[in-house]
Amino acid sequence: MSKIAIIFLILIFQTFSFSAFSQNPVNEKVMVRISKEIWLGGTVHSKGFALNYGMSKFLTFKKKSLINVDLVSINHDKEYKIFGSFDENAKKFIFGKLNSLYTIRLGFGHRKILYEKLRQNGLQITMNYTLGPSIGLVKPIFLEVFKYDFSGRIAGIATERYNPELHNFYTIYGRASWSAGLMETKINPGMFFKIGFDFDYSKNREIINSMEVGFSVDVFSKPIILMVENNYYRFYPSVYISCSIGNKFY
Q1: Pick the CATH number of 35-249 from 1.10.10.10, 2.40.160.20, 1.25.40.10, 2.40.110.10
Q2: Which helix (H) or strand (E) holds 32?
Q3: What is the pLDDT of residues 132-185, one digit of tens each?
């Protein structure tokens, strides 16, 4: 082989080596430029529903700080809606329910990439965990009940706070409006912990389309009773599925 051919092969090898060597840093640079993620989501969990807002900032290539805010409804396992009246205008109610429970969570934690999205249509798997304070809102249940005159006939319908000693199945017309009893809501502070696995299936690296499955637990400072003839509880564990949409920012 001539010297010219050898020199030509060496130049080709160096050219391809430089191209291959410089390709990874360019790709990493594009990924590192993404500094923040923001998303909104809805959640179905074993005790109710929730709305979610989340924001994360990159700490390293695969680890991010995480802040989320959740508005969560927490129900009792034995809740079941029924009609109290044959009137089609009557609203369904949950017989035996004393209080509604909502909680506002403020969580701080981390997102850790377990499996990176290697192509545009790929799947990214992330583990999320947050811990933080929560504000429990305990709202008493109000119902529309029949009022009777001295002869025992129905004289009208009134809105009253549910009292199991006064209101039975035959005296309840239906559920009152959601705003009834709002001013009597009591605050019960607490803490929560949430951990889940997030599956991002979006086709674009800058878009978030994801589903998260996981476990959460809410702990309140004071015991709460939701249903008649049931114990007071402080701990409310649940499993959840959450769907989110959002964007990644440079």
Answers
A1: 2.40.160.20
A2: helix 3-32
A3: 999 999 999 999 888 888 877 888 889 999 998 888 888 888 888 888 989 999
